[in-house]
Amino acid sequence: MAEPFCFDISKNLFQEAKRFLAGGVDSPVRAFRGVGGTPVFLRKGQGCRVWDEDNNEYIDYLLSWGPMIAGHGNPRVIGAMSLAMQKGTSFGAPTKEETELAHMICDAIPSMELMRFVNSGTEAVMSALRLARAFTGRDKIIKLIGCYHGHWDGMLVKAGSGLATLGVPDSAGVPEAFAQNTLVAPYNDLEAIGQLFEAYPKDIAALIVEPVAANMGVVLPKPGYLQGLRKLTEEYGALLIFDEVITGFRLTYGSVQNIYGVKPDLLCLGKIIGGGMPVGAYGGRRDIMEMVAPDGPVYQAGTLSGNPVAMAAGLVTLRIMAEPGTYDSMEPKAEHLAMALKKAADSADVPMYVSRAGSMFTAFFTPQEVTDYETAAASNLKMYSLYFHGMLKRGIYIAPSQFEACFLSIAHGDDEIATTIKAARQALIDIGKSRCA
Question: Is 132 left (phi over 0), alpha (psi -120 to 50) or beta?
Fold first, then answer.
């Protein structure tokens, strides 16, 4: 029998971190507030596995919150980054790799006629929304409750992800004027969107949406929902913006629009296009993007934008994902795992709804279908906490929050999937027993 997991070093490191880092972490969900306990300090990763400072080994379904689709330490990605670093880590000047990666992205995404690299998903969204306001001459933005678009002021209204985990509806420090220009509606509710447009027919610059939501857990759009958003925005002269920081190159090679056939006016990317390095991008219609400086009046700049190491990592990652059969090999494993989790929960008499899109999924501890933030928020957070720690002590690393996604990489094999299913069965049996106690 394997030795029980020990987390002593992680506990000591967390106490030390809290002396110098706000909350002991550099991103709130990492603090384990949503599941309790002490965060695990990771020290290395290889393939689909990670190791912590106590030398505990895990099969990783967090994958740095999605970017590591080619697996940790992929030799082709590491090789490309190493060569790039030998030439120089930053120039603050154009490089041909920026154009090469932009070319790949534009070829893969029909709506991406012109684009700009930035350093994060938050920066991409902030820039796209400023551009939308300039292009339309309007101020108001519609966002969907539970969708998270980064931590800048205008989008910290009814956000999901870490805010949902922490139970904070908004953020302190956001001026009231910002919130007044952000209109909110439930995800998957076209009627509510229509009512906002009727109330503000000439004031709404854009509607921004995660076309497949992932920041309240994975929630799929209802049939016709994205098409309805496209129709309404066109009718009222507003722009449609897809936030695909998570879903870009995750569900297919390219964008969700390749699956659903709906082209946004602007699109935001991040995570996978940088192969694990800090990166973001926004782009779309040429006539809109030509308003960005230096060609137009909308100013946006960044010292490290298009960083050569990040461009090298992104180029190789997308080349790997473009190889025939790559997505076809991941999705059946994710489907099998999702179905097995649901079966295991049913056998243990534990209420669970599993939502999956491609190679990402969320196991919600609720008996009802999850279609929006309200139904996601009905999940039993105590059960999720028990499940998280039950999986962790069995060597499976998942998101420390009910309102996040699990991800597969090309490195996850049949053996890892089988091990995960076995661990989940045991964890769910324990939860089922605790319900009866």
Answer: alpha
CA 137 vs. chain centroid, Å, equals 30
Residue 148 among the catalytic residues: yes
pTM: 0.94
> Catalytic: which of 140, 158, 271, 333?
271
Three-class SS of residue 235?
helix
Please indicate whether residue 415 is annotated as part of the active site.
no
Catalytic, 343? Answer no
10-residue mean pLDDT series, the chain (437 residues) = 78 96 92 93 98 97 97 98 97 96 98 97 96 97 90 59 43 70 93 95 97 96 98 98 97 96 98 96 98 96 95 98 96 98 97 98 98 96 97 97 97 98 98 78
Under 8 Å CB-to-CB from 149, ≥6 apart: which residues? Answer: 121, 122, 125, 143, 155, 159, 208, 210, 243, 268
Structural tokens at position 112 = 């991406």
> How do beta strands 42-46 and 360-364 pair?
unpaired
Which CATH fold would you assign to the domain 8-61+325-436? Aspartate Aminotransferase, domain 1 (3.90.1150)
Of 3.40.640.10, 3.40.50.150, 3.20.20.80, 1.10.340.30, which CATH number belongs to 75-321? Answer: 3.40.640.10
- Identify the active-site residue in 148, 187, 236, 260: 148
Angle value at C-alpha 402, between 398 and 406, nearest 5 degrees: 35
Which listed residue (52, 243, 265, 372) is catalytic? 243
